[in-house]
């Protein structure tokens, strides 16, 4: 069972773009959810975390809907820090 990296982003968010660029550069696969296109899912994430910070990363463990959620500013401060965290899950 492989973990799935899901990133919640917003168009024109420089921090989101930086993270996506770094993950692509390091060949780390992810699925992007632009929050304006996936409002229902995003609102569930906000309800769970209590925060609307981007990018927010959810790591689905295997074929489940369970896994950790990492929120910018709460769980990590830099792109390098979250990339290292993501690497521990893949």
Characterize the structure shown:
There is one protein chain. With 90 residues, this protein is α+β, with helices and mostly antiparallel strands. The chain has a domain at 40-76. 36% of the residues lie in helices and 20% in strands. The protein has three helices and four strands; from the N terminus they run βαβαββα. Strand 1 (4-9), helix 1 and strand 2 (31-34) form a beta-alpha-beta unit. The longest helix has 12 residues, at 14-25. The N and C termini lie close together (10 Å).
Gist of the model:
By secondary structure, the protein is α+β, with helices and mostly antiparallel strands. The chain has 3 helices and 4 strands; from the N terminus they run E-H-E-H-E-E-H. It has helices at 14-25, 39-49, 79-87, and strands spanning 4-9, 31-34, 56-60, 69-71.
Trace the largest sheet across and list its strands: 2-1-3-4
**Approximately what portion of the residues adopt beta-strand conformation?**
15-25%
Q: Averaged pLDDT, please?
A: 93
How is the main sheet built? Answer: 4 strands, mixed
Order of helices and strands: EHEHEEH
The geometry reads as globular
Structural class: alpha+beta
Our measurement of the CA-to-CA distance between the termini, rounded to an integer number of angstroms, reads 10 Å
Question: Uncertain regions: pLDDT < 50 for 5+ in a row?
Answer: none
